[in-house]
């Protein structure tokens, strides 16, 4: 009970400040603030929409229902939405403690694991970003599934097995990141459960495959506005290898965190080679030590397979990697590190306690200090611009946030930088053109509206504003040609990611 109370207090103390944060202009509008079916609360039409839409890449009815509930109770006031995230993360930390205590019987190792999970700075993104509620819900369902599976493993029965499948399905209905669960259960069968039961995982692999297929449909139905569609497999493999190593670095030394790290479209060969060698070396070491220290093997493969759905091999979005992708996978790394450290210094309990307390305190302080970056859109994307290079999306979103704040002159250089980095980023081209239009730089605005239409001809806003600006400078014939319906194929534009 003392451990549980300490976890709750730590989570509320560190993350409670998020109650004063605003929505940000990256997905929070699409998920909540500007989403009519969600804003309306519980309606018949909204419930049908939640279960039938495959939007923003995923089929995620549980996530939509969660946001609908918040709007039903609190409207679009961001404070309660943030507190809901904090509550879910707190529950997840308690579940981590309960699951691993039941799984291993190791009280203080499980307590330390839960504290590291709760307070590590890589958790900030999932907790402070309202649109990432899906991370928290999916993890909650996955952890409850693990709890149910432990009950089934000790006393197998059909009702217990069906409960495991049902909770797993709910996790997939929040976010398909949970699809690696079947592999995690196989790993836990190896250690610490010591059982062999592959056949019972086959339905779980089937559910994961179904979730993958739905995600593939959601990705490909976006067509030309799916940024990742043109990436080659060598590019994806190179980015994935380097990202795995970066995740390891951030797990040990969480610095320079950002809402979005750009996809590495051109990774030097030597970096790919070093990353691959390091990953192979760690995997080889884990395999060699699997008998003497099985938690190293289980923890490492938990991390590798957990990240795999979001590694970019099937690219969803513009990011090369993301802090939120480590929410459950980093548990594997933490298990390996904590159990190894405990076995190494277990005969010196005072040293172990001092080191553990120092680590937890340091993580809590860093998270407390870093969390206010998520206060609003300007602070979030100013940080991303400061700590990443050639980040067109961060420049664009920062410019948009400054525009929304009425800081138009400050926004212009960021608009310009976004299109310099990525000329084909048609959303940024249009946004820059709108800013130039507002600044009465009509000819420059015309040029950038044309650039937006060059890369995405079916962009109605760019087409309408281009025509208006052409008429403004006395070129009505050109304006009429721009508005010719034959110039567009009729596609509608969703916000491109």
Q: Care to give the gist of this entry?
A:
With 497 residues, the protein is mostly helical. 69% of the residues lie in helices and 1% in strands.
Report the helical percentage: 55-70%
Our measurement of the CA-to-CA distance between the termini, rounded to an integer number of angstroms, reads 44 Å
Radius of gyration: 24 Å
Name the structural class.
mainly alpha
List the secondary-structure elements in sequence, H or E.
HHHHHHHHHHHHHEHHEHHHHHHHHH
Coarse shape: globular
Q: Average pLDDT, to the nearest integer?
A: 92
Largest sheet: 2 strands, antiparallel
User: What is the quaternary state of this protein?
Assistant: single chain
Number of structurally distinct domains: 2
The low-confidence parts are 488-497
**Order of strands across the biggest sheet?**
1-2
Strand content: under 5%
Summed up, the helix count is 24
Extended strand count? 2
